[in-house]
Write the structure tokens for this entry.
Amino acid sequence: MFGQDSSQILYPEDIDRLCAIFDAVCDRYRILPDSEAALDLAADLVRLFQSGMAGETALRIAAEARLTEPYRLAG
């Protein structure tokens, strides 16, 4: 499970798990880690986490869904 208060603070274990999700999604969608798409992905993951989404699977699925939205693929 993630840190005690996911709405505000990112604990080291939270960052480690978010990084693991980030790496997995970047690998699956062939996103370069230093690209604009990667920055957007990282920001999305942090926003989702801080809004209360704490499960690794839920975060990964939500992040992937945002990547496959038509406006993301077109631009």
Notes: The CA atoms of residues 48 and 62 lie 8 Å apart.
